[in-house]
Amino acid sequence: MNYIGEKIKELRRKNDMTQEKLADYLGVTYQTVSKWETGITSPDLSLIVPLARLFKVTTDELFCFNENADYIRNEELEAEYRETWKNGDLKKRFETAQQAVNEYPGDMKWLDRLAWAQAMRSFEYSEDEDKYAAEQEGAIKRFAVVIENASDEKIRASSVQGIVQYLSFRGREDEAKRYAQLYPENYSVSKDDILLSCLRGEEKIVHSQRMLDTAMLNLLNLLGNDSDLACDAQEQILKVLIPDQNYLYYHCFLSELYRKRALFRVRDGNSGVAVQMLKKAVYHADEYDKIFSHSGMYRFTSPFFDRVEYNTEDICKSGSTTQAEDLFETLKNSAFDPIRERGNFKDLFKSGS
Fold this sequence. Notes:
By secondary structure, this protein is mostly helical. The chain is about 65% helix and about 0% strand. Helix 2 (about 20-25) crosses helix 3 and helix 9 runs antiparallel to helix 10. The model has no long low-confidence stretch (mean pLDDT about 90).
């Protein structure tokens, strides 16, 4: 927008000056003044203060800077930009972001938006490899500027996501990985998701399996085991994703799951099933302890996790007791009193003494 040219024209007429007279005052040609007013060129910086003095206005007024007007203009651009997400007009989105960057240089929010618009429109040139590459490289440079200069974490995270994605498209995976490490923790898109987008081959398989393992662990924790329905869900998830029953550290979950089921059966008076559940709880506690009784590297054999390897030393432990010892300690709770005198329960309990 030709703000300053229009303002010069307005002030010149207000002061009853011709273009020639203004030109004489400033030592330029009237053609130069005409070019200012039509937006072909802008005044040299050295003429800004003389112009303001001549018209008896501030330089802010000469540049048409007004906080309220500035806010209104920004909102106009915001509305135009939001509309392009409704109608899918990518050309208009790019033009709006470009106009905003021109009018608000240094605004990292608009520069990030311009980078995304340029990156997205690059696919329009997929049949022209040079143009396709040039558009993506241009977007990458803009993302990099935002990452280096943005103070707002949300804006910076958006550009990190963009640069990782398009560096990967350009086959520059090592650079993409380095940028992925800059992504904030615990954000709307996880750092693992960002990193996954720039990995290939075996490295991607290993990373995705670790993500799945973490996701399953989180899901099991969220489900809890405070009802039969939650216990059923936990058990089915483990059976489906670890069909070979090589549960490794998930034996701990299963031991606690069957202990809770035993408690539910005690409460509803089904003592026989309660003891059966406790036998399963003891089995899984013992299996867990077999693994963690010594240090070593272990790997799942389930096809969903067969690249997930861990060291028993890295697994968090609490206290000095084994899983089985912890289980038998909980069985001393009065909640199990209704079945405590049953012979099979007593045998079970003694085996852990």
